[in-house]
Amino acid sequence: MAEFKDVPPNAPAAEKALNWIDNRFPLSKLFKEHMSEYYAPKNFNFFYFFGVLSLLVLVIQILTGIFLVMHYKPDADEAFASVEYIMRDVPWGWLIRYMHSTGASAFFVVVYLHMFRGLIYGSYRKPRELVWVFGCAIFLALMGEAFMGYLLPWGQMSYWGAQVIVNLFSAIPFIGPDLALLIRGDYVVGDATLNRFFSFHVIAVPLVLLGLVVAHIIALHEVGSNNPDGVEIKDKKDANGKPLDGIPFHPYYSVHDLMGVIGFLLVFCAIIFFAPEFGGYFLEYNNFIPADPLKTPLHIAPVWYFTPYYSMLRAITSEMMYGLILCVLVAAYLGATRANISNFLKVVVVGSAVALVLMMLSIDAKFWGVVVMGGAVVILFFLPWLDNCAVKSIRYRPDWHVWLYAIFVINFFVLGYLGIQPPSAIGERVSQLGTLFYFGFFLLMPWWSRMGETKPVPDRVNFVAH
Amino acid sequence: MSDTTVDTDKRTWLIASGCAGAVGGAAVAVPFISAFSPSERAKAAGAAVEVDISAIKPGEKLTVEWRGKPVWIMRRTPEQIEALNKVESQLADPESKRNPAELTPEYARNQARSIKPEIFVGVGICSHLGCSPSDKFQTGPQPSLPDDWQGGFFCPCHGSTFDMAGRVYKNKPAPDNLEVPPHMYLSETRLLIGEDKKA
């Protein structure tokens, strides 16, 4: 509890008003802690724009969403027509709708780049584990938000996309069919499904998202930002206890980020005005046909941001299961013979591997496809505890680490490309290899991240004044 | 109460009331979770559909909606019935033995999976992830299909193939044959979908 402060009676009215508030709500204190006295490393680069940009896109989505809800009708008979009504008859409705639909794709662009930044500079490492975990939870909530939002226009892709994804849940043994029924609220995707997805999309998930964003930022401001060198700026402080390599977020980064915002808005507006469908990647062409429960479009694919995961789902065929079983057996063999653990733990490892293989043989490949797709996102949560490298930043890691990260990114793009394409024999093989690489990258990280010679990390950050 | 001792009597009641509160909270979840399940209206919407099949010519397919799903009524040609024999060895479950209770009513547990050999009635929903397969009645080589294709259905989503009786081919993502809905003939030309004599 703060002491009650008084200002001189002849102080300016603004100072008096601020003092009145500060005695009742920590306004100045919050501003100092999070803005004017939040010290951020001075060597931020291009990749550090994307945190603030994802916050900007969140605001755009909420604002445009509020206006769309004023005209949209969550009813299977009216939904498609009400979206076209927004596009044609509502004044500036087309702009608000295109801002929202382009915003969805922009959200994933900035969030993927933001996550990539964290990945290469080791921003998830101690003591920033919870910053990363909250961030992964945001990513998961965002995927749910995007998936449910995509049903609302009630086009062919909305309908059949939801049909396929909800049916994924029915692959879970025992509870699956009832769970799918509970999600749909009907025996097929229909009016009930549309209504509940609307409810989740406009209120439930956004509330969770906002809470997680607050937690993400509070956790970040507690531990302080990482930087491209992965050097802790708090280790070197001046006589006043301020980090030598830190600068106040406001005004330095608030103004700096404004430049990033302007650059982003230039691209964002160009897409809204000149290519809102973005060649069928942001708004799929089949979604301009009203949902028809009796006819599946000849080619269905999710929106681009889901396709890497969709590829992994499709990669798990009954043939692939034998490959995965082999991986489990090799891992169990290595665990039993090479690992430095007690005999009891070795028995546990072998026992659980045998149980897993038995399950893999007895449950349909369809279910394991779902497990792999979910696991591809869930594994991100564990990244802080998988990385054993002596240094944080890619700058001081062995050179071949850079190549490994490059292959990881290329592999992610290849999986994304294959997820857009219709199924093919060669595509299936490539996506199977890609899936193995994706999981290998994370699951083998505890070992490969320790290998190789790291470079000396400087005491202070690299910074060239400009 | 002093700082050093704990009033155990009070603590017992605190724990007890805490538990009672937790049980109450859990009980409140029941109506909310139940509200996710299909409403009475959705349950009642599953009424049977009556169809006139006299206009379907051999080789033609009619699609009707039953419980929101596409139901196919197909009058097969003699060649198509003949083909059911030829593909037998390439099928995953030619005799409809998997999940017969849900997928194949007793009267359809035969090679043609139908009451009358020429009329096939099936739910046009792939047993993989619920897409509706497309018609591929043309025989012979064509894109996405084997060269010795005998006619049937092809799911565009993940490439599963089915023969003219909705039986799934081996090594495809779809685990099961297409569902045959309960159905019965009211007369030579009138078919009732959604109900059979047992019901």
Features:
heterodimer; A: 466 residues; mainly alpha; two-stranded antiparallel ribbon; 18 helices; 2 strands; 1% strand; globular; B: 199 residues; alpha+beta; 3-stranded antiparallel beta sheet; 23% helix
Succession of helices and strands of chain B: HHEEEHHEEEEEE
Query: What is the rounded Rg of chain B?
Result: 26 Å
Major sheet of chain A: 2 strands, antiparallel
Tally of extended strands of chain A? 2
What gross morphology of chain A would you assign?
Answer: globular
The fraction of residues assigned to DSSP E strands of chain B is 15-25%
Distance between the termini of chain B: 71 Å
Determine the mean pLDDT of chain B.
87
Reported for the largest beta sheet of chain B, the result is:
3 strands, antiparallel
Q: What is the terminal-to-terminal distance of chain A?
A: 43 Å
Low-confidence stretches of chain B: none
Helicity level of chain B: 10-25%
Radius of gyration of chain A: 25 Å
User: What structural category arises from helix and sheet content of chain B?
Assistant: alpha+beta
Oligomer description: heterodimer
